[in-house]
Design goal:
globular, four-stranded mixed beta sheet
Length: 418
């Protein structure tokens, strides 16, 4: 393939991906607004028209911001690739650090991380203090936001920089099969993170206290016994410090597994509804969804790393993305691959979303076996209402992006088993 041909292919894929995302977002906005003035019949007795309208407006606001974010993100990728931005950063750093060295490669990738964060920062700030605040969800102060940002930066430096250095070293030292060594390192790092995150990282951002409600604790422990699930403990997280949204999850593997309830969730749901929500989460554990997803991601990552290894030997890959042959090192190759890959993998989005929705249905069915289906249905209705989740998503948009089934379909299935 010639560099010009690859440039055209990349530009076409990037443009089509952007237009597809914008078209789907526009469909979503139009659909939820068209359904704004009528609550779907299955929810008419439990969700008010005011709440339904709020969900439509909240969804539309998020879609509009997402569309702007997508457009700016696409322009950012074009500037770095065909616009010569990555080459310029490489050359600028070469005036300080010797090009091709490990230090130069880490500095290049770190610089891209900082620039990418700077591009995304205005959208993240408006999402939190604009949209979330306008719809009554944000509870974060500027001081807390700044503190979170400082902690995230320190973690990125303390963990991210050594990981980048290790990956680049493996790419340069392990010969033609470097991609296999990088994959093994990546797999080991991700498994280690499952043990480290709940115990050491998450407490840096939130306070976790043992579940104090004895009645709820007894109910939950009974559910865990029925499901054969052992955890390190039941904890309540102070999610209300940052948001009014509620959730529950379990995290970690082996002895590090712990169950976490947002305090906002416990405030909104009855004990039997909390039990049903947890039973849904345990359904993912029962069906080994996390391991299945990890296996698919691991296999895909191995394939992607092999592909990167092949592309590094193709001059047209670098030249076609705006990089001169002299700058065609491991760090540049890794950066170009990360920038270009999403444009070519976008068509896989509906497949992954469909697989995730299948898992959600399986977890719902498991919860209906372990608790009352009506309790889970009622809990979901409350969460849809309180989180301003739209009850009327555009079907095509939902198929592409939604990891959870549409509310009406999900609740209908549960009510049919009650």
């Amino acid at each position: 393939m010639s560099p010009n041909a690859f440039s055209i292919l990349f530009l076409a894929a990037l443009t089509l991906t952007l237009f597809a995302r914008l078209a789907l977002m526009l469909r979503q906005i139009r659909h939820v607004q068209a359904c704004r003035d009528a609550v779907p019949p299955p929810f008419a007795e439990s969700i008010s028209l005011a709440s339904h309208r709020k969900a439509a407006d909240y969804t539309a606001a998020r879609m509009k911001l997402g569309a702007a974010d997508a457009a700016v993100g696409t322009a950012y990728v074009l500037v770095l690739t065909l616009g010569g931005g990555l080459q310029a950063i490489h050359d600028a750093l070469a005036g300080i650090l010797e090009a091709g060295t490990l230090a130069h490669g880490v500095a290049l990738l770190a610089a891209l991380g900082v620039i990418g964060w700077a591009v995304e920062f205005p959208f993240a700030l408006y999402r939190t203090f604009g949209i979330e605040k306008r719809f009554g969800f944000n509870r974060m102060t500027l001081a807390l936001y700044a503190a979170d940002l400082a902690r995230e930066t320190m973690l990125a430096a303390a963990i991210g920089l050594p990981v980048l250095a290790a990956v680049l070293w493996l790419m340069g030292a392990m010969g033609e099969r470097w991609w296999l060594w990088v994959w093994l390192f990546w797999l080991g790092f991700n498994l280690l993170a499952q043990f480290v995150w709940p115990t050491f990282i998450a407490p840096l951002f939130n306070k976790f206290t043992p579940l104090a409600d004895e009645a709820l604790k007894t109910r939950v422990e009974g559910l865990l016994a029925r499901c054969g699930f052992r955890s390190r403990g039941l904890f309540v997280m102070d999610g209300s410090r940052r948001s009014a949204h509620g959730n529950a999850y379990f995290t970690g593997f082996g002895a590090a597994k712990r169950i976490v309830f947002f305090d906002t969730l416990l405030d909104k749901l009855q004990p039997e509804e909390v039990e049903a929500v947890l039973a849904h989460e345990l359904g993912h554990f029962h069906h080994r969804h996390i391991w299945k997803r990890l296996a698919v991601v691991a296999a895909a990552s191995l394939g992607m790393l092999w592909l990167l290894g092949w592309l590094m030997g193709q001059a047209w890959f670098f030249a076609g993305l705006g990089v001169a042959p002299a700058a065609a090192g491991t760090a540049v190759a890794l950066a170009l691959f990360a920038l270009a890959l999403p444009a070519f993998t976008f068509p896989l989005a509906p497949l992954m979303s469909h697989w995730s929705r299948v898992h959600e249905f399986e977890a719902d069915a498991y919860a209906a076996q372990q608790t009352r289906a009506a309790d889970l249905a009622q809990a979901l209705v409350k969460l849809y209402r309180d989180n301003a989740s739209t009850l009327t998503p555009d079907p095509l948009y939902s198929r592409f992006f939604d990891s959870h089934p549409p509310a009406a379909l999900r609740v209908a299935r549960l009510r049919s088993t009650s």
